[in-house]
Design goal:
The protein is mainly alpha-helical. The chain has 36 helices and nine strands. The chain has five domains: 193 residues, Rossmann fold; 72 residues; 173 residues, no CATH class; 81 residues, no CATH class; 110 residues, no CATH class. A hairpin with a 4-residue loop joins β5 and β6.
Length: 734
């Protein structure tokens, strides 16, 4: 593992926050800010900020709020999740209820912007329990004034109930060394101030009461009182007066405007609810004195009027509320923030990355690094889609980079290549298809099959058949096959190998330093560790080839073979081993005995399976590994010993199969033809037959397979003819 891979990387975070200064204004919101400021300077009272979610509204309002030179106070009111979900209410009643809820939420949050005491007061005034008067003592000022009132009243009571002589004889004065005459003069003065003490006490009581919230809770009317419109207006006027008072500079009588920013009303899509609330806001603004320079400015975030959904029941009940172009009647000024064009996503994300580019490049693989001002292909899934907001792009970028950093820092043993394209593709699936993605990560086996099918689709001329197989696998994953768009996106990811055989590393979490098998390694591992439970799919060699092309060169597979070889409870290697050169070579490397047993079991020579044996022998003999000669030598020695249980007919059948499978390499089992061993029925190993010689196309090889000591009158003719040696004199024969 290189030093770069061992390095621990710090997280990169692209804050999902509004624009704070010109350097972070990547979409040019400054012009819109200037327009709003101009409108405020020219007495605009209600300003409509028309835009979709995530198009820069918060950046605009935050920039206004931070301008302390022009605006004294900014109170933000959030309308998100303020609507009622009372399913038992009729549609028209629910609409009225929602308008009422929005209005109350607005007044409460407006009061909260002044102080918690005002919020508490407004909450009681607008509650169903509020009636005439009650006391709520929650202010520190009240308790301070109460203490002073009690203190001065106590002094008054002591003085009022005492005489000059009783006070002057108090032992305390003597202990303090104060003369009696001085004491009497002091006491006389106090007696003269008795009326002042009671006045001071009363003043402190009045000041304390002035800091007390007054509302009355009538027990008989609890939860039964219906809020009247006058109560709402009175509450607003109360807040308005407090806001005006706080806005004045008493030294120079100068004032700055207060901003009341109503956010997330654009999340409400029902037209009658939005318009209903805006009309309430319009009334509030009209009941205040228009000539008052201290009136607050309302900035309201709303959807475009054409995007609001009409409520059929409310439309029949009150068509006036649904009149189009009502925004122009309510707002003194409207400004519209347009969505970002998808062609600008590249430039926008590049600007978001900004000065973090160099550090991000340290994380990226060489072919994925950012060069120049254009993002590489690995960022394509961050940019995929239309009508994306800045927040959505930042969310995608943050998640993909966080995944990349996490994988780097976990330092997996096979961490040779971590693709940002795969991080981006995984992130795209999570954000674009959250429900379907939850199903995908549960379908690990199916995803592995999709990866392998994608390999075949890319390399096969039968695209239609492969695509049909691809779709069949997708349909096995619940809820995924139902989306054509998701199917296209998944296909594209797999064909481009943005989701590849190592998808588990991006989809799941593993302990630090662990080895994460890719899809091919997982399949081979299953075949080795759980033989019989997983079917072979005919792509064993292709999978091994892909594994060997990795930097670890199949180390994980060799470790499994080694473990099997050293496990005393496992007597033999699984049959899959003999079907691949890499696996068989590994088996002979770690445990020759178990590997030899596998070969013997695989070539046990049942007469009804000669074609299968022929295929295995030809395939194994085509392998090119250093232990092959030793392997065959051991095996054929064992096979010769097995001849003692075979008859001549079976032995000849076996040797014919070997001649056909081994071809020019038949001499590696010469001992099966020339060795003299006893076989069944008190016979010996038969000399090469006429049929066997007919399968040998090389005279020199044929000669070496003839045991001359067994040549006789009964076989000389066909041997000589087969070997084209009619005049040759063989030992013992003329």
């Amino acid at each position: 593992m290189s030093d770069t891979m061992k390095k621990r990387f710090e997280p990169i975070v692209f804050m999902n926050m509004p624009v704070s200064d010109e350097t972070s204004d990547i979409i040019g919101i400054d012009t819109a800010i200037s327009s709003v400021e101009y409108a405020i300077e020219h007495d605009a009272q209600i300003i409509g900020l028309i835009a979709d979610y995530g198009t820069g509204k918060s950046s605009l309002t935050d920039s206004l709020a931070k301008n302390k030179e022009k605006y004294k106070k900014c109170i933000k009111i959030n309308m998100w999740d303020s609507l009622s979900n009372n399913e038992s209410s009729k549609e028209c009643d629910l609409t009225k209820e929602n308008i009422s809820v929005l209005t109350k939420s607005f007044l409460f949050q407006l009061a909260s912007g002044l102080s918690s005491r005002e919020a508490n007061h407004i909450d009681k005034r607008l509650s169903k329990n509020y009636s005439i008067i009650s006391f709520s003592i929650g202010s520190g000022w009240f308790w301070m004034f109460a203490v002073f009132a009690i203190l001065f009243f106590s002094i008054y009571s002591i003085v009022d109930n005492a005489t000059v002589s009783s006070l002057s004889n108090f032992v305390l004065w003597e202990n303090l060394g104060i003369s009696e005459e001085s004491v009497r003069n002091l006491i006389n003065t106090i007696f003269l101030m008795k009326p002042l003490l009671i006045v001071i006490s009363i003043v402190f009581i009045v000041l304390g009461i002035s800091k007390t919230i007054i509302a009355f809770s009538n027990w008989k009317n609890q939860n039964n009182r219906d809020l009247e419109i006058n109560d709402v207006f009175d509450s607003y006027i109360h807040i308005f007066k407090k806001l005006i008072t706080k806005n004045k500079d008493f030294l120079f009588w100068k004032s700055k405007r207060n901003l009341i920013i109503i956010e997330d009303l654009d999340r409400v899509e029902t037209k009658d609810i939005v318009i209903g609330f805006l009309k309430e806001l319009y009334r509030f603004n009209n009941i205040t004195v228009k000539t008052n320079k201290h009136r607050p400015v309302f900035i309201v975030s709303v959807k475009d009027e054409t995007q609001l959904i009409n409520n059929k029941a409310q439309q029949d009940l009150n068509k006036e509320i649904l009149v189009d172009d009502i925004y122009s009647k309510i707002f003194d000024y409207t400004i519209s923030l347009k969505p970002i064009n998808y062609l600008d996503y590249n430039q926008l994300v590049f600007a978001i990355i900004g000065d973090k580019k160099n550090y991000l490049n340290e994380l990226l693989e060489d072919q994925e690094k950012i060069v120049g001002s254009k993002l590489p292909r690995s960022f394509n899934w961050i940019l995929e889609g239309q009508n994306l907001t800045i927040r959505q792009l930042k969310d995608r970028l943050n998640h993909a980079v966080a995944l990349l950093v996490t994988l780097r820092n976990k330092q997996y043993k096979n961490q040779y290549y971590i693709s940002f394209a795969s991080c981006a593709a995984t992130t795209y699936l999570m954000f674009e298809y959250p429900k379907e993605y939850a199903e995908i990560i549960k379908a690990e086996t199916e995803m592995g099959s999709l990866v392998q099918t994608a390999y075949r689709m890319k390399n096969s001329s039968e695209k239609d058949n492969q695509h049909s197989e691809f779709q069949t696998i997708i349909n096995r994953i619940s809820n995924v096959g139902k989306s054509d768009k998701l199917n296209r996106d998944l296909s594209k990811m797999l064909i481009q190998r943005d989701i590849d055989s190592d998808f588990r590393m991006y989809f799941y979490s593993f302990p630090k330093g662990s080895y994460i098998k890719n899809s091919d390694e997982k399949d081979i591992s299953n075949l080795l560790l759980l033989p019989g439970e997983f079917p072979e799919d005919g792509e064993l060699n292709e999978k091994i080839d892909r594994i060997l092309k990795q930097e670890n060169k199949g180390t994980a597979i060799l470790e499994i073979i080694k473990d099997i070889g050293s496990n005393a409870d496992i007597e033999i290697f699984p049959s899959i081993v003999i079907k691949n050169e890499f696996l068989l070579d590994g088996a002979f490397s770690f445990n020759q005995h178990k590997a030899n047993l596998l070969l013997q079991k695989s070539l046990s020579w049942e007469l009804n399976d000669m074609a299968g044996y022929k295929h295995i022998i030809a395939e194994v003999n085509a392998y090119n590994f250093s232990r092959k000669e030793s392997m065959w030598k051991t095996y054929f020695k064992w096979l010769l010993s097995e001849f003692s249980t075979f008859d001549s007919e079976k032995i000849i059948s076996i040797r014919i199969c070997l001649i056909q499978a081994l071809g020019q390499d038949i001499l590696i089992c010469k001992n099966l033809f020339t060795s003299v061993v006893k076989i069944a029925l008190a016979q010996t190993n038969p000399i090469i037959s006429k049929e066997e010689l007919n399968h040998i196309n090389n005279i020199n090889i044929g000669v070496q397979l003839v045991e001359e000591n067994k040549i006789g009158n009964d076989n000389f003719e066909y041997i000589a003819k087969a070997l084209s040696m009619p005049k040759r004199k063989l030992k013992g024969v003329t």
